Amino acid sequence: MNIEDLTPGQESERRAGIGIIGCADIAVRRAIPAIRKSPFDLVAVASRSLAKAESVAAGTGCAAVEGYEALLRMPGVDAVYVPLPNSEHAEWARRALEAGKHVLIEKPAVQSAGTARGLVELAEERGLLVMENFAFLRHPQHDRAQDLLAEGAIGELRSFNGVFGIPPTDPNGIKYQAELGGGALWEVGCYPVRAAQEYLGEATEVLGAALEFDAKQGVDVSGVALLRDGAGVTANCSFGLSHSYRSTYDLWGSEGRLTLEWAFTPSRDARPVLRLEQRDRETRIIAPASDQFLGVFGAFHAAIRDASARPAHHRELVRQAGLMARIRTHAG
């Protein structure tokens, strides 16, 4: 029985079942603990290695499965989370949709608008949801920023400036492998680009973009993109894999500026600071602690239950993929 066929009475009796395709670190550290607190029932974890799947599944009460296709054939799996290398997202999202599963793809979901549209069309044909996991959007600090902007705390928005950089890690890791979809733009640049879209209008164009490549590693290790919407609001997005850690964005308006000091990857227990500057006054606003991964699985579950919530997620997936592809093309 597919989850979309459940009646309201049945929904209260049966938790939606979810499986995880791949045993990436993000799945182990953040996704599994969040799923176990969410409305989902964690049914299974799949890996190409049974031993690895068993190691990850140990202590969770879920099944360990060898092979991704085997998980897709399991009864009770209504949805899947796909934290595979970027280059494998499109294929396994498609296979999962064809198997009748709702799909949450770890960011960046796919690398072209055409691929994103293809997945959305398949999902809509089958009455399913496909969604990209930008967990940071589920942290309440971003809702507070939107509220302050709507209240006129900084006047009219003029520009967005977002920065996400991390120190170098293992050079043999996935993020440094071009054939697996690695590189700074896809790994960290997607964060400020996605955040900018919360504030810029639909008609966003790429004014400029540049990527710095490491010839030895064969991937881009830093970059910048300049965007502008139809109303003239601009966004400057900077990112890198060879930087001291920085995870922030600010909104500069006609009457002030609002800065989110830990915008993208706050820990579950952290209380991020929003700094509001207005003329000769500065106000520090402390956001509540929140598990943003629990928030994203809650949103995923809600959109599975409520089909009217799915089109917004589908539009966001296509828009992000298209904008990221245009940035990559502009950078050359």
TrEMBL record:
GO molecular function, one term: oxidoreductase activity
Domain Gfo/Idh/MocA-like oxidoreductase N-terminal: 18-134
Record key words, sorted: Oxidoreductase
UniProt keyword Oxidoreductase present: yes
Pfam families: GFO_IDH_MocA (PF01408), GFO_IDH_MocA_C3 (PF22725)
Family, as annotated: Belongs to the Gfo/Idh/MocA family.
Identification of the protein by name: Gfo/Idh/MocA family oxidoreductase
Organism, scientific name: Streptomyces brevispora
GFO/IDH/MocA-like oxidoreductase domain location: 144-258
Domain of life: Bacteria
Matches recorded under InterPro entries: Gfo/Idh/MocA-like_OxRdtase_N, Gfo/Idh/MocA_domain, GFO_IDH_MocA-like_dom, NAD(P)-bd_dom_sf
